[in-house]
Amino acid sequence: MLDMLNSFWQYWNYVFTLIGYGFWPRPQVYAALTEDIRAALPVALGVVFLSGISLLIGQSVILFLNRVPPIRFVISLLIQGVLLTAGLIMTAIVIWLSGLIVFRSDPEISAVITLTAVSYAPLAFGFLILIPYFGIFIEKLLYAWTLLILLFIIRFGFDTNFVAAVVCVGLAYGLRTVLSATIGRPLVALRNWILRRVIGTDQLAMTPDEIRAQVSAELLDSQRGEP
User: pTM for the complete prediction?
Assistant: First the structure.
């Protein structure tokens, strides 16, 4: 039991360490990660999982509006972490496919997933997006920061220049949009069904503006219901 707890603590210690390294482009870190993918991949996925939880904490007012009980709140955090991790894997696979098209190179898919996961490190600050007045700016900053890290990672992973990395990311996001609108529809429907069953809503990806609008609507409805 003690060994299990020590392993658990050590794992999350590695996750937080990798988050710290992921805030800025570090080719030496990327090289170290790709040298031992079997050890690095679980830690990198932990970064994404934790970022998903942080983003949901930043949007937790949605859960409060839906009067989600504490146990379901915890479950919803776990679900959001899993959903973001699944989205990361899909994004990494599409980036890998885009790299095959743009660069004609074939890096190991697990290495692409690992490196792409590192780019999610800034989203560990996702809980900050509901700060009054600054939430919108923080949200845009975090996603822009993530995109910038991803571009540097693609430069490293495919050994190319910045312009080619931009083309690869653009193609990857275009392919992901097409896949999401076609073969991804059943998966999206399944995700929404799970969220509705667990927490009563599937709107966990709302922007701060949308969240504030819903809060205002709830308050207005409550005032109209008063005698």
Answer: 0.76
